[in-house]
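Before relying on records like the one below, remember that each one covers exactly one chain. Contacts with other chains, cofactors or solvent are not represented anywhere in the record.
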Amino acid sequence: MRPRRVRADPGSASTPGEPRTAARVVARAAVLVVAVVVAVLVSPIPTLTWQATAVTAAIGVVGAVLAASGRLGRVGGRRRVTVRSATPWGVLVVAVLALEIGALLYGYRPDFPTISYLLGPEFVDRTVRLVGYVAWICGGYWLARR
């Protein structure tokens, strides 16, 4: 007769999934706190200025470096990133960057609006910019962990 396995109580500290869940909650809370602090510091900068562009680019670069280094990886191990899984995101990023940089270099054309032109008027208010930065940083974190 085989010995019967005893399952751990779901509320006990020895549950295998508990440390992973606790680490996940702490990581999400830390990202939210960082996002709010960054948004509070950055949201007073007026839109459509070189300072706003520089800050936004810096946040994007830091996020991309953290994601590429694996520091934003899953707590319980990371999925393997392949060329096939990264291609759709790469194409999307290159297309948006080409559109935005082209509009920046050649000037705005009313028949060919960019994403920044369409969303720009919405971010005039400081509160909307604050919420936008928090959503952008938390959304980027969520995407990096997928």
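Residues 8-15 have pLDDT under 50 and may be disordered.
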